[in-house]
C-alpha cells in the first residue's frame, strides 16, 4: 500500500480508537469510581454498611465481567440503539465499551481502597470525621497512587477491547488491522497497526506509572 | 460539644464510690460482648462489668496482657465501640446516649494516639496535624495559626513539610500527638502509643506526654502492656484481666503492694530484682526436705530506711543468701527489692514470718529450690 494512503488510514483509525477509549474511559470512571467506593465501604461493619446491597451490586458486576465482550456488544444492541439512535459506528461502539468498563473500574477501585490501612479510618473516626469526609479526605487521598494505576490499567484494557468493536462498525486500529491486514492479506498494514498499538499502550502505561509514583509518598526518602 | 443533658447527681456515685465532678471518664457496670464467629460458641465477653473512674487532670494507665480487653475499653470512651450494657461518661456526658452527630462533636474534644501512629502517608507533617481542623471546618488561616505552635510544642517545626515516610517512629508519634491536640481536647487517649518504639524514644514520648499533661492540664488515659510506661508517668493505674479490673489505685501503691496475681505476674517481668533464668527455671512450688525458700523482700516508705537485711540475718539465725537486688523509682518514689534465700525448715520459716509481721516488711514467696 502507498505510504501516504497507509498513513491516512492509520491516522483515522488512531483517532477513532482514541475517541472510543477517551469517552468510554471518562464515563466509565465517573460511574465506576463511586461504585468502587461503595463496594469497598459497604460490607458488614464498614463505613456505609449495607451488606445486602453490596452483594447485589457485586453480583451484577461479576455477571457483567464474566460476559465475553464481543457477546456484550451484540447483546446490548437494543440499548445502544436507544442511547445513540444507531447500532453501528464509533459512537455506537462507545456504549458497550463503557458498559464493560464500569465493572472493571469498580473492582479495581475497590481493591485500591481496600489497600488503605484500616487504622487510618479509625483515626479519622476518632477525629470526628463524617463518613463522607473519611471517603474524600482519607480513602481517596490515600488510595490515589493505586487509583491512578487502576485507571492506567483500564485505559490499556480499553485499547484492547476497542479493537473488537469493528464487529459493529466501530472502526479504530483493531478494525483496520482485521479488515486490511488479515482479510485483504496486507501484512504491512497489520505490522503498522501493531506498532502503533504498542507505542500507544507504552505511552499510556509510562504516563500512568509516572503519575502514580509522583502521588505515592509512602517510600519517599530525602 | 454537647452539654451534659442530665444532672450529674443521676450518676450512681453511691454504688461505685466515684465522684463524677472529679472524674473525666466514668465506667459504670460496663460490659461489651462480641458476637461469636462460631454460631455454637455464644457471645464473647471482652469486658465483663467494669467500674472505674479516671480522675480529671491525671495520667491514668490501664495495663493488661493482650486480649485482656484494654483496647475495647479505651474505644468505648470516644464511642468507636458501643457498650453492650452499662454506662460510659466523659466529662458528665453519657457516650452511649449520643447519636452519630453527638459522637462526632464528642470526638472533637477527645484526642487519640495510636500504636502505629495512623498518619496519612499522602500528607506532610503539617497537613496531618491540620486534618482534624479541616474536618471540624476550621478556615485555612486559623488552621495555620493553630498547627504551627503545635509542631513547635512537639519539637518538629523543621519537619513540617516532610511526609511520614521520611520521619522516624518517634517523630511520627510526635506528629500523632500534635494532631491529637489540634482540636484542643480535654482528654487524650493513648492506645499503646509507645509499643512500637525503642526504649529511648519511648522515654522521650512519655516525657512529652507528661509535659502536655502538666502544661495543658489535659487528662491522659493510656492503655499499655508495658509496665515501664505505667511506672514512668502514670499517677493512677488499673490492672485489667479477662474483661475485669482486678486492681486499681495509686500507681505506687499498686506496684509496691500488688494484691492480684495478674499484677504480680506483670510486675515480676519488669520491676525490681530479677532472678537469673537458671535459678528461676529450677524453682518448685513446694519444698522438698533440705530445700531453701526464695523470698522477695520489698522496701518502700519507712522500711526503705531501716537496716532490715542485717537484722533478718540475725533474727533467723540461719544462712541467708542474697540472690538479686534492685532499686527502682515508681511515680517518683523510691522502691527497692531484694531476693534472698534461707532454709525452708519450719523453725526458720516461723521466725521469718514473725520478723516480717513485726517490721511490716512486704514479702513474696517466689518458690523453693535446692
UniProtKB/TrEMBL annotation, chain A:
Bilayer topology annotation: Multi-pass membrane protein
Subcellular location: Cell membrane
Domain (ABC transmembrane type-1) ranges: 14-208
Keyword Membrane: yes
GO cellular component, one term: plasma membrane
Record field: transmembrane: 20-40, 52-76, 88-109, 147-169, 189-212
Alphabetically ordered keywords of this record: Cell membrane, Membrane, Transmembrane, Transmembrane helix, Transport
GO BP field: D-methionine transmembrane transport
Family: Belongs to the binding-protein-dependent transport system permease family. CysTW subfamily.
Protein's name in the database: ABC transporter permease
The organism of origin for this protein: Ferirhizobium litorale
